[in-house]
Please model this.
Amino acid sequence: MAIETGNQLKLFSGTAHPALAQEVADYLGIPLSAAFCGRFNNGEIQVMIDESVRGKDVFLIQPTGTPANDNLMELFIMADAMKRASARHITAVVPYYGYARQDRKTRGREPITAKLVADLMETAGVTRLVTIDLHAGQIQGFFDKPVDHLMAASILARHIRKQNLEDLIIVSPDLGGVTRARDLADRVGAPIAIIEKRRPRPGVAEVMNLIGSVEGKNCIIVDDIVDTAGSLVEGAKALARFGAKSVRAACTHPVLTAPATERLAASNIEELIITNTIPVPAEKRLPKITELSVAPLLGEAIMRIFHNISVSKLFDK
Model:
């Protein structure tokens, strides 16, 4: 959809996900603004904003997935350049918020890196954040600036409804994900079940029990992140043991670090539904992966922010 911006809205992309930025630009009917982001010979990041942003509302699309540190530094430097060029507002559009899983101290002398990232964004000049499915919702409170926390549930639900699955049940992979599972379940008109598990050591999960019945049901496990896929695959196995007819999964952020693809390929998960909040390399695109675009959601949010229209309407079913 084309929007009337009066040349006051500028949409920029870092190097983290230019394909998504172009999709958002196409949705809005505006071109991506000109900027160069490269490297000096010593590896330091070089940024040049190639058009005036004085007095403009700038939106910078830059998810902070792998390599997280490079993508974050690029975001900080681009925001600093725009601040020094007198941009009126600088909105960081960060579909995937890196370091979100480091949101609290679980033992002594640990950092809260998600808060540090928020502080660095604001220091760099970011005046607003747009993000999708934060791992921990309280990260919104780490910012002193407005945060628009969008949900991918509407996108996932639309795809699931099209499949017309009978005896559908939405499964939370742990007790902490119940709210997310309930939201999706309400959107598709299905009940929920909950996998109860424990973590004997970091990165290892053991299924202890299942709350609810999945016997004869088509199950969809819903989570915000699929990383190594260990917990996801073990959960799918457990659902099969409890009598599930089929198992699918819906995860917003496809981090997919090794050995995720090998585990998923060998698992009983029939379909993994993801979104394009972060790019997925060609070698990780398994036949069972279905990718949905968040560009319309981000584009609509950008349009509403620019025109001072309520963003909360995007949370409707």
About this structure: The longest helix spans residues 68-84. The chain has a mean pLDDT of 94. The CA atoms of residues 39 and 45 lie 5 Å apart.
